[in-house]
Amino acid sequence: MASDSTDSYPGKLIAVEGLDGSGKSTQIYLVKRWLQSKRVKVFFTEWNSSALVKAATKRGKTEHTLRPTTFSLIHATDFADRYERQIRPLLRAGYVVLCDRYVFTAYARDRARGVDADWVAGLYDYAIKPDITFYFRVPLEVSLNRILSGRPELGYFEAGLDMGWTFDPYESFRIFQGKVFEVYESLIERENFTVIDAEGAIPAQQKIVRKHIKNHIELDGYKLPYMPRLPLELAFDEDRVEDMADL
Questions:
Q1: Whole-prediction pTM value?
Q2: Residue 228's pLDDT is what?
Q3: Nearest Cα residue to 32 out of 50, 45, 49, 48
């Protein structure tokens, strides 16, 4: 990971990582709504959402023409576009930027597909280090059950069928996610992940996440000068007195 940090920017960067089915997207969405309810200047961005590469990615997935290195470069392009157009400008503008997946997703998925680790790291060496990276840690079997119970079928690349480990999409997905899990676990200390037990209840996880954010970021310094009152439903019941009192 690059040695640069958000210390040189007025904004703050919070990222979430985890296996598919870890619940990280739900948690970062709740963080977004919570910060909005506190009038914090917040911006949200997610992995693989740049319009710049959307058509190429869709075509490659449909025609099954993407190879591991090509896949890696497409995601690197997606990230670079969002980084230059969204992440860095908003940090410069003093926003709290929330990222549903950051460069660590590339580290995990590309390495799981056999792409050289140093090469992948080099693609993202310009990216600043997040102020907080939450890693929603969940046992592989729990993650698999959550994903497989809610989907009638898995996508070709989602299942890792492009790697040729097996023709069974569910077994391939299990193998792929297992490799991704191993990489994530190896990054915990090196990248200073804040580990969250993703087996817990959603409100309990969110309470831990909010407490950590409040302990590490002075949110009052990122508030908008004025914002109309928002509905109390944006906060959990146990948070309402504390978190809505200053609105």
A1: 0.85
A2: 57
A3: 45
- Which of 61, 65, 66 has the alpha carbon at shortest distance from 156? 61
Residue 81 burial (10 A CB sphere; 0-12, 13-18, 19+): middle
**How long, in residues, is the chain?**
247
The neighbouring-strand residues paired with 29 are: none
Q: List, edge to edge, every strand of the sheet that includes 12-18.
A: 42-46, 96-100, 12-18, 132-137, 194-197
Label residues 190-217 b or e (16+ Cβ within 10 Å = b): ebebbebebeeeeeebbebbbeebeeeb
DSSP per-residue string spanning 146-179: HHHHS-SS--TTTTTGGG-S-S-HHHHHHHHHHH
Please give the domain boundaries of the chain with CATH numbers for all domains: 12-236 (3.40.50.300)
Q: What is the pLDDT of residues 150-181, one digit of tens each?
A: 777 888 888 888 899 999 888 999 999 999 99
d(C-alpha 144, C-alpha 108), whole Å: 17
| Helix or strand (DSSP H, E) at 102 | none
In this predicted model, what pLDDT tens digit does every residue of 68-91 receive, in sequence order?
A: 898 899 899 999 999 999 999 999
Q: What is the pLDDT of residues 195-226, one digit of tens each?
A: 999 999 999 999 999 999 999 999 999 998 86
Structure tokens at 222: 């990122």
Q: What is the dihedral of CA 148, 151, 152, 154, to 10 degrees?
A: -80
> In this structure, how many other beta carbons lie within 10 angstroms of the beta carbon of residue 156?
15
DSSP class of residue 133?
Answer: E
A 10 A CB-CB count for 64 gives: 10
